Structure formats: C-alpha cells, structure tokens
Amino acid sequence: MITGNRTATRMWQVLGNAVLLAVVFLMIMPYVYMVSASFKPGDELYSIPVKIFPKSLYWGNYELLLGKTNFIRWFFNSVFIGVSRMILASAISLMAGYAFAKFDFRFKNALFIMLLATLTLPIYVLIVPLYSMMVAFGWTDHYIALILPLAAQAIGVFLSRQYLLSIPDEILDSARVDGAGEWGIFWRIIVPLSQPVIAVMAILFFTASWNDYIWPLVVLTKDQMYTVSLGLPTLVGPYDQQYGAVMAGSFLSAVPIMIIFLIMQRRFIEGITQGAVKG
Fold first, then answer.
1. What is the pLDDT confidence band of residue 90, given thresholds at 50, 70 and 90?
2. What is the reported pLDDT for 80?
3. Which residues make beta-bridge pairs with 236?
4. 26-35 pLDDT, tens digit each
5. Nearest CA to 153 among 91, 214, 215?
6. What CATH class is the domain 68-278?
7. Neighbours of 124 (CB within 10 A)
8. What is the pTM of this model?
9. Is 279's pLDDT higher than 60?
10. CA torsion angle for 152, 124, 229, 78 (degrees, to 10)?
11. How high is the pLDDT of residue 103?
C-alpha cells in the first residue's frame, strides 16, 4: 500500500513538472523568436514555413535601427525617465508608507482607504485632466511631464506601509531616546531596514515606466523625445514595415529591465522570503 502511494505521488510530481516545463516553454518561445528574428533578413523573416533560428547572423536590422533611426535617443529617454520615476516614486512611497505605518494623525484610516481607492481608477480617466495641467504648465514635450505626474504611486504606499508595520516601534523609540530626529530615523533606520520592499518597488516602477505607452503618446509630439515603447511602433507603417528592426529594438529594450531585476534580485527574494515566513 505504501509503495502504491509513493508511485502515485511520483507520477503526480512528474506530471506537474511536465506541465511546468510546457508553461515555461510557451512563455520563453516568443522571446526566443524575437531574438532570432532580429538576426534575420527580410526574405527569411517572412518565409513559410517559419524557422525559429536564422541560417546565419544578419546584422542589417541593428545597423538600420542604430544608424537610421533615433533609437539611441529613444533608449536614453526611456532609461532617464525610468530611473527618475523609479527613484522618485520609491522615495515618496516609502515616506508616505512610513507616515501611515508609524504616526497617528486625524483621518489616517480614511485617508489610507481613499488612497487605496485610487487603485481602481484606470489611467484613461486621468488622461484628460492631467493633459490639461501639462498644457497649462507648458510641460508638454518635456521630461518633467513624463516623470512628475506619475511619481506618486498608491501601490507603493500600500506596499511600504504593510512592510513597515512589521518593524517594531521599540527600535524607533530607542532612536528617539538617543536624540535622533525623525529625518535621521527615516534615513538611518527605516531606509536600511526597508531594502526588500524598496527592491520590489524599484522593479515595479521601472518596468511600468519602461512599458508605458499611453501617457507618452498623449504628451509627446517630437520624435527626439519619444521613448522606446513609443518610437518602435513608428517603424511599422502602411508603406514601410521594418519588422526586423522592431525585433532588434525589442530585444535591446528588454536589457535594462533584466539589469534592474538582476541588481535588485537578492533584495527582492529576501522580501518574498520574509513575507512567507511572517505569513
């Protein structure tokens, strides 16, 4: 009987692993084809039947992308905007989360509920009033229009508050007894202890900024101010379709996200582990 149970358990494990491998295969295949297509010439890119790997490495798509388009400027714009939004939104979210978690003030719970309610609002509801503000300030076609309006993120405040609630108040009280000010407590105690949640917010905010399409489409009109997500679609039009260059640009645009994740990976995993243990 015991042998039969072990056999059944083993079969279920094998089946589960097979399902996971199939899911992983389906998820990575588009990326594999994207990289492969970036090294294919036009005739091979449209050939039928479709071949996953190119016959030989063709660098013409990258030469076209880097030499005859503004991709380098688009890439710089995306990196600058993404890093700026990531730093600013993480700092604001951590400060607000610290206030909600460790300070008592009037209407704190009501304000926090109102903050969470903003998560239900789609960006399409905010586009018109935000665009009107950008026009009134004269910020269209400027970096500030892509950074400042989206610097305050309710999801970041929520994550920060929930994480900081787990930090004992005794640590902060001891620092106050020793004469530390609130800013000193925040920078010397809260920030170092909040590295896992900062890593999570950094990944979320940078990825959201990098993939943002609707808001840049609304506030930008100059080609040199485009981001990668906004510039690459311009390579495919009704009279000219540079799909190879689009694939090359898509591959290059995935590199910064992978770099940010690799940098924040250890802290990110620590946050997941701590959450699992506390749960």
1. very high
2. 94
3. 241
4. 888 888 888 8
5. 91
6. mainly alpha
7. 8
8. 0.83
9. no
10. -20
11. 87
Omega within 30 of 0 (cis) for the link into 192: no
Q: Return the number of other C-beta atoms located less than 10 Å from residue 233's C-beta.
A: 12
| Interval 53-67: pLDDT, tens | 777 788 888 888 888
Taking alpha carbons only, the member of 211, 262, 255 closest to residue 233 is 211
SS3 labels along the chain: CHHHHHHHHHHHHHHHHHHHHHHHHHHHHHHHHHHHHCCCCHHHHCCCCCCCCCCCCCCHHHHHHHHHCCHHHHHHHHHHHHHHHHHHHHHHHHHHHHHHHHCCCCCHHHHHHHHHHHHHCCHHHHHHHHHHHHHHHCCCCCHHHHHHHHCCCHHHHHHHHHHHCCCCHHHHHHHHHCCCCHHHHHHHHHHHHCHHHHHHHHHHHHHHHHHCCHHHHHHCCCHHHCCHHHHHHHHECCCCECHHHHHHHHHHHHHHHHHHHHHHHHHHHHHHHHHHHHC
pLDDT value, residue 82: 93
147 contacts 83 by C-beta, under 8 angstroms: no
Q: Are 228 and 75 in contact (CB under 8 A)?
A: yes
Bridge partners, 241 (sequence order)? 236
- What separation in angstroms does the CA of 68 have from each of 60, 65, 180? 11, 6, 57
